[in-house]
Amino acid sequence: MPPRANLRAIALHAALILGAAALAVPIWLAFVAATRASADFVAGDVGWLPGPHGFANFWTVLAAGDSADGLPPAWPMLLTTLVVALLIALGKIAVSLPAAFAVTYFRFPFRSLAFWTIFLTLMLPVEVRIVPTFQVVADLGLLNSWAGLSLPLIASATATFLFRQTFMSVPDELTEAARIDAAGPLRFFFDVLLPLSRTNVAALFVILFIYGWNQYLWPLMVTTEPRFYTIVVGIQRLALAADEGTAVWHYVMATAILALVPPVAVVVGMRKLFVRGLVETEK
Questions:
Q1: Whole-model pTM above 0.90?
Q2: Percentage of the chain exceeding pLDDT 70
Q3: CA distance 244 to 176
Q4: CATH superfamily assigned to domain 76-224+272-279
Q5: What is the C-alpha to C-alpha distance for residues 159 and 202, in angstroms, rounded to an integer?
C-alpha cells in the first residue's frame, strides 16, 4: 500500500474509533451509574468502574420495583413498548407495500396526484398534527388502548416511497412473464415482488421498529393508565421523580440501559439483511 493511502486508511480508522468512543462512553457511564448506590450520586462519586449494586439495581428495576420511590417494575413497560413497536413497524410495512404496488403498476385517474399527495405528508409528522389527531383518537374512545398507541403512527409516506422505488427497478420482463403465465396482480405481488423486496422489508423493519420503540410524545399524551406506559414514558416519569428530590437516578440509568437492549438485539440479529437492504443497487 502506498504511504499516502496508508496514512489515509489510518486517519479514517482513527476517525471511526473516535466516533465509536463518543457513542460508547455515555452508554458505559450510564451502565456504571446503574450499578452504584443512590448515595454515590449525592456525593458525586460515580467513577468509571462498575459498582457492587448492579444485580440488585437491575433486578429492582426489571422485576420488583420500589414502592417507596414510586418505581413500578419495568418489564410491563418493556412488553408494552415491544407490542407497540411491532404494531407500528408491521403496520407501516403492511400498508405501504400495497400502496406502493398500486401507484407503480395500476393505471388509474390521478395516479401521480395520489402518489405525490402521499409523499407530501412527509411534511406533516405527528408532532405537527398532534392536536387534531389526539381529538380524533379521543372522540373514537381509543385513549389508553393499543389502537390509540399504534394506529395514528402506522401510515408511512417514507416506506411507500422506498417500496415504489424498489418496484420501479423490477425489470419489465418479469411483468411480461407473469402476464404470459396468466398470473393475476395478487399472485405477481406475492410470488415476485415480495421475494425481491425481502431485504428492503428487513431494512425498513429495523428502522421502523426503532422509530416505534423510541416514541415519546404520542404515548405520553394518549396514556394515563400505568399498564399502557411505554419504557420511554417510564424513564421520563422516573426522571421527574429524581428532579423532585427522590434519589432514583441509579434506577433511571438502569431503566435506560434495559431500554437499549431490545432495539440493539433487533439491529444485531438483522444486521446482514439490514445492510443489504440499504446498500443494494437497482433501487
A1: no
A2: 89
A3: 67
A4: MetI-like (1.10.3720.10)
A5: 12
